[in-house]
Amino acid sequence: MTRNISVEGLDQIPIEKQRVELVERKCRGHPDSLADGVAESISRALSRAYLEECGVVLHHNTDQGEVVAGESIPKFGGGVITKPIYFLISGRATKIFDGVNIPADAIAVEAARDYIRGILPYLNMDRDVIVDCRMGMGSTDLCDVFLSCDGKIPRANDTSFGVGHAPFSEAESIVRGVSAFIDEELRPRYPVIGQDCKIMCLRDGDTITLTVAIAFVDRYCSGITEYIEQKRILTEEIAAVAKTFTDRSVNVAINTADDLDSASVFLTVSGTSAEMGDDGSVGRGNRANGLITPNRPMSMEATSGKNPINHVGKIYNLLATRMAQDCVAEVDGIEEIYIRILSQIGQPIDRPHVASAQILTNPGATIKPIRSDVEAIIDGWLEEITTITEKVIRGELSTF
């Protein structure tokens, strides 16, 4: 049976030639990313438990979580959290299967607390965090959704679509690169950097401006003078890394809401704004490629927390990006490619209603010699679609 794969040429201005481009990333300690991370950690924990206990991943979706901000009194040298951050776990999970009771709520709470502890090490988990599990029952009648039409391929549990694009633009690469640099290199050297960072990139022609919000950890900053000096150092470091991705002009501004005269600055006890003032929701932050890109097609699906077996809102978003990246890497003549995959509920996930690729070719290239190669890459990924599930359960793919 031939899959419905459409490959067509696209006539538009390439992203790098558009005057204005916006790119955003909310890093791991941002309240929205905390909600995503908790939801995904619970899904992975449940998947592993189901496999161990029942030999199959059972129905669950934990993509409805919320983070409700606490209250704190930060101060230079070290402050205090006065009201705990509240994490609500909701969604659905199978708790009874073939007469076996599965402690899904306990698994979820443990996974959530382990994740929060790993991301926010300055929180006192006994005092500063409340994890409230309100998951409902996943109907065992839905377990047949995990069975395939031919014994191998699950059937889609929703009519939904996923999108992906490649290659990343300079602005997109800068945002991803700066985020990784902060997490992997800057924070180990400067512990004053909290886990809650947000990077907003504006490219206006050939001028790139990064507006970066960084939650400073109060215990590592003795006063306003040190705060100003640390901010200066971080500005220079981030600008230097951003310049490695581009020949364009780069400007960096950190914590632009600071009022230095009154010492009203982005200072936190724990390294996240969730300790006071900022709430978070699953699906309100980064898309499945780790970015928020209003210049590109995007799905509104919350990828994190959805089950990795047959929820196309998760699988197709992850898959579309990898398809696009492979097409650019393996097929000559592609300047930009946009992939959209649409499911029909109840149909095998390897047989989408349509898998659409729209291609902007390089100058001088034509779509005709590209079409068959792109079709083959898309078809090959759909043939091996369950590898996405395996990677998700092992934690090898980020959903935000």
Description:
This protein is of the alpha/beta class. The protein is built from seven helices and 20 strands. Helix 4 (224-243) links the parallel strand 15 (207-217) and strand 16 (249-254). Helix 1 packs across helix 2 (104-119). The radius of gyration is 23 Å and the shape is flat.
Describe this structure in a few short sentences:
This protein is of the alpha/beta class and 400 residues long. It is built from seven helices and 20 strands. It has helices at residues 31-54, 104-119, 170-189, 224-243, 312-330, 368-383, 386-393, and strands at residues 5-9, 20-26, 60-61, 66-68, 71-73, 80-83, 85-89, 92-93, 96-97, 100-101, 129-133, 136-137, 161-166, 193-204, 207-217, 249-254, 267-268, 280-281, 334-342, 354-361.
Total strands: the figure is 20
Helix share bin: 25-40%
Principal-axes geometry comes out as flat
Distance between the termini: 34 Å
- Give me the secondary-structure category: alpha/beta
The chain-level mean pLDDT equals: 95
| Gyration radius from CA atoms, angstroms | 23 Å
Tally of separate helices: 7
Secondary-structure element sequence? EEHEEEEEEEEHEEEHEEHEEEHEEHH
Q: List low-pLDDT spans.
A: none
The largest pleated sheet is described as: 5 strands, mixed
Query: What percent strand?
Result: 15-25%
Keywords:
single chain; 400 residues; alpha/beta; five-stranded mixed beta sheet; four-stranded mixed beta sheet; 7 helices
Write the layout of secondary structure elements.
Layout lengths: L4 E5 L10 E7 L4 H24 L5 E2 L4 E3 L2 E3 L6 E4 L1 E5 L2 E2 L2 E2 L2 E2 L2 H16 L9 E5 L2 E2 L23 E6 L3 H20 L3 E12 L2 E11 L6 H20 L5 E6 L12 E2 L11 E2 L30 H19 L3 E9 L11 E8 L6 H16 L2 H8 L7
Parallel strand pairs: 1-20, 7-11, 8-12, 15-16, 15-17
Antiparallel strand pairs: 2-14, 3-8, 4-7, 4-18, 5-6, 9-10, 13-19, 14-15, 19-20
Helix pairs in contact: 1-2, 3-4, 5-6
